[in-house]
Structures are given as structure tokens and as C-alpha cells.
Amino acid sequence: MPKRRRLPALIKDMGFCLFKKPFTREYPAVKVQAPEGYRGRHIFNPEKCISCGTCLTVCRLFSRSKESEDKIIFNIPQNPLDCNLCGQCIAACPEDAILYEGIGDAEAFEGVEHPEEIADYNTVYNLMRANRSTRSYKKDKVPIELLKKVFAAMEMAPTGGNMRLEKFYLISNQEKLSAFSEAIIEELLKDPMMGERYGKLLPLMRKRYKIPVFLDAPHVIFVTSPMKFSSMDNNIGIIITYGRLAAQALGLATCWNGLSQAAMRMNPTIHQMIAKPIIPAAPLNARPQLTI
């Protein structure tokens, strides 16, 4: 049998719940605001619908009419987050009866239906095998046209639920990167565990590099997400991997930076040192313009 909890422990938990903010949110009295960059809404055309029921197998927002089993109904969500616009219903519908508002043209190019003919396995495999985490960089700035190609590849990365809410930041100003680096080092040294692990290493890096955390790299790309789900870390990892492989194909060296990630987890206010995003992840086939 489970042990009974003692009264002091119960009183402590009661006090915690009384003086903390509620864990739940009021709904529908208080509607949830969709995150910045959230895409439009669905358009369901019942005239095109043939009532095949395929959409019923991919999304709970579709149902058969109570009046007629041959009629499909799209239950428009009142809460914008009830539908994450993953696009599975659009992909599944054989009659194009479901679309996004302003979806634009579908992504298409010669060979898209046979990707195995675009690059053979050995080419892709050897590209991945050749990838290295580089920790020594030239001081030369990378041409903007090459950076645009890296961002274009990052936009192609899949995300959980196809939400694509991540934002990309490019920082090239060396003074700003230096200040960023110092803020990260100071935060890491405050933490006992990090201090024990990096306490000797970070001062030595300060002597060797002007921008220790980023190893004097001419550019640093940050990827962030407004969502707090654990899957968002997966999204960011996939996006960065796409970018690193694209950079390698363009002859650019890269390295995933774990120190900055750890410091910003410990102190989220460090995020404020990043300016507005250079480019948000593309919703569907949109291509936001890259500006510096």
C-alpha cells in the first residue's frame, strides 16, 4: 500500500497551489492567442467533396453530418491552436476540396516526383560523412548570396505538425558577437556545475579569441521557436542540420554551438541581445525576403 502523506507536506503543497499562478487556462472565456507567424485558415469547399472520408482518418476536426452520412463537415476551431495547420488533410484529400487561405502555388520543379534521381545514395551519404564541426575560421565575410542559399535550405526543413514557427537570426557584427559571447561566459560561470566543467577552459578561450564562444566566426546564425514544447528542440536541430549540410555543399565551414544554447536556457533574457529576426521560417511556400 502507498504511504500516507504527512500533514506538513500536504500543507506545503496547498500553500504552493494557493500562491502560484494557475496551471490551467480559462477557455472559452479567455481565448488563446496564436503565436506570431501562425498561418491563415482552412478553406473547405463542400462542392468538391466526394465524401470519401479520407480526411476523417487524419484529423479530428472533420466529421460526418448527423443529418446525412454522405456529407462531410469541417468543424472550424474556435481556438486557433486546436488546428496546427499541419496540412495532412490537404495532402490526403484526392479532390483538392481543402486548401489554406492564400496557399499560393505548390512547390514543384523538374524531378520532384523522383528525388532518388536528383542525387544518388552514395552522393548524399558521402556528403553527410564528410561533414565536420569546424572550430577555426577565416576572417573573410561570406557573400550574402551564399548566405541566402543556406537560409533557403533551412526553410525546407520539416517541423513537427508542419507549423514552421521558428525564426532565423543572422549576426555578423563582431562587436555584438563579442558582447554576446561575454554574456554567455558570465552566465555559464555562475552555474556551479558549468563552472566546474568550463571554469579553466573559458578563461583560456578568452585569451586566444576575441569572440571566445563563437571562435571568431564571421557570422553566427540563431534559430529560435516561440513554442515551449519539447518537439521544438527537434525542429531546431533539423533546421540547423539542413543549414549545415547546405553550407558544406557551398564550401562553408560550420559548427553547432552548445555553449550559447546552454546559457540561454539558464538565462532566457540573453535572447534580448538578438535583434529582430532576419528571416522567419517559411509558411508553406512563402519566401520571406532576407534583409541585413
Secondary-structure class: mainly alpha
- Write the CATH architecture name of the largest domain: 3-Layer(aba) Sandwich
Strands ordered across the widest β-sheet: 6-5-7
Number of domains: 2
Largest sheet descriptor: 3 strands, antiparallel
Please count the helical segments. 9
Characterization of the model:
- The protein has 292 residues and is mainly α.
- The chain folds into 2 domains: 34-103, Alpha-Beta Plaits, CATH 3.30.70; 115-280, NADH Oxidase.
- A hairpin with a 7-residue loop joins strand 2 and strand 3 (72-74).
- The protein has 9 helices and 7 strands; from the N terminus they run H-E-E-E-H-E-H-H-E-H-H-H-E-H-H-E.
Describe the structure concisely for a colleague:
With 292 residues, this protein is mainly α. It has helices at 7-19, 88-92, 121-129, 144-155, 174-190, 192-198, 201-208, 231-249, 258-266; strands at residues 42-44, 62-64, 72-74, 98-100, 167-171, 220-224, 279-280.
Question: Which terms summarize this structure?
Answer:
single chain, 292 residues, mainly alpha, Alpha-Beta Plaits, NADH Oxidase, 2 domains, 3-stranded antiparallel beta sheet, two-stranded antiparallel sheet, 9 helices, flat, disordered C terminus
Give the arrangement of secondary structure elements.
Elements: H1 7-19, E1 42-44, E2 62-64, E3 72-74, H2 88-92, E4 98-100, H3 121-129, H4 144-155, E5 167-171, H5 174-190, H6 192-198, H7 201-208, E6 220-224, H8 231-249, H9 258-266, E7 279-280
Antiparallel strand pairs: 1-4, 2-3, 5-6, 5-7
Helix pairs in contact: 4-8, 5-9
